[in-house]
Design a protein that fits this description.
The longest helix is centred in the first third of the chain and has 24 residues. By secondary structure, this protein is of the alpha/beta class. The chain is elongated and about 80 Å long. Helix 1 crosses helix 3, helix 1 crosses helix 4 and helix 2 crosses helix 3. It contains twelve helices and twelve strands. It has three domains: 85 residues, Winged helix-like DNA-binding domain superfamily/Winged helix DNA-binding domain (Arc Repressor Mutant, subunit A); 110 residues, Periplasmic binding protein-like II (D-Maltodextrin-Binding Protein, domain 2), CATH 3.40.190.10; 96 residues, 3-Layer(aba) Sandwich (D-Maltodextrin-Binding Protein, domain 2), CATH 3.40.190.10. Helices cover 43% and strands 22% of the residues.
């Protein structure tokens, strides 16, 4: 088979179908119609005299021929993309991309506003889609290009996964401004334990960093309310006598009085994760560096509202 007879754009479609496992999702990623993807697949099948993908429930599973083909196709497209990215002096304002992030509550609330302010100025055509995948799925989602980056707590990485440190968040205790404790110069352990607490966690069970730190002291706090998101926690905080243990940077966004925790608790560390294959893209490298710089600015400019 001669490459002169094949439209090389078909290989791009082939890789996206292979990664997505679904023609509708492939069309969305390619920003074309599903019939256009189906037509491209039909041409590929004719060229290679193989179905390449077969329906199995809602997925398009690759045939043995497709499994053999994907490696060379990835390598060839990666080399071509990397060569173009290195040679191209692109203007971020010309980048048209839907950037998909797996990110949790704290990163979304603290980091994304800072990152978005940079994008609005330097790369206004980039769109953001943010959602949170389970940690055990991140490596697969990044490898399949279903997400571009993930922001999560530190974890062991293997193979082609890469990481960089983003944020190191100090925890404080927050109460509403007219809380009966708000006039106190500081909060001691007895006062902290005597209060009813809002506990924020995406998990259905288990404690947080404060609970783990207190358990080492043989102490237990009274978690009266368990919520999934800090935005809801701060809304409740403003209307109640509950107290909230929270990353410091979030307190700058809500009216509250904050105290240093009366015990040692570990900071919340957030890492940025990406797949090594994306490093061949100049656009991806620019976005990654912009994310890291946004995190550094957030830490540098963060107002420390704690009172000694």
């Amino acid at each position: 088979m001669s490459l002169r007879r094949i439209d090389l754009n078909l290989f791009v479609v082939f890789q996206v179908i292979y990664d997505a496992g679904n023609l509708t999702q492939a069309a969305e990623r390619l920003n074309v119609t599903q019939p256009a993807v189906s037509n491209a697949l039909a041409r590929l099948r004719e060229q290679f005299q193989d179905p390449l993908f077969v329906h199995a429930r809602k997925r398009m599973n690759p045939t043995a021929a497709a499994d053999e083909l994907i490696g060379p196709v990835r390598q060839a497209l990666g080399l071509l993309e990397g060569s173009i990215a290195r040679e191209e002096d692109f203007d971020p304002r010309d980048i048209k991309k839907v950037l998909r992030l797996s990110i949790g509550d704290v990163g979304e609330a603290a980091l994304l506003p800072e990152f978005m302010s940079v994008l609005r100025e330097k790369a206004p055509q980039i769109k953001i889609q943010a959602y949170q995948w389970e940690r055990r799925q991140l490596a697969r989602k990044l490898a399949a290009s279903e997400i571009d980056f993930a922001i999560d707590i530190p974890m062991a990485v293997e193979g082609q996964l890469r990481q960089a440190r983003l944020l190191n968040e100090h925890h404080v205790c927050a109460v509403r401004n007219d809380h009966f404790l708000s006039a106190e110069p500081s909060l001691d352990l007895e006062q902290y334990l005597s209060q009813e607490h809002i506990h924020v966690s995406s998990r259905r069970t288990g404690g947080g960093v404060a609970d783990l730190a207190l358990s080492k002291l043989g102490k237990v706090r009274n978690n009266a309310v368990r919520l999934q998101h800090y935005q809801a926690a701060f809304a409740l905080l403003e209307r109640s006598d509950f107290v909230l243990t929270t990353p410091l940077s979030l307190t700058n966004q809500y009216p509250c009085r904050i105290f240093e925790l009366p015990f040692d608790a570990p900071d919340l560390e957030l890492q940025l994760y990406w797949h090594a294959s994306s490093e061949r893209s100049g656009v991806s490298n620019w976005i990654r560096q912009t994310l890291i710089e946004a995190a550094h600015r957030l830490l540098k400019n963060r107002t420390n509202r704690t009172q000694e």
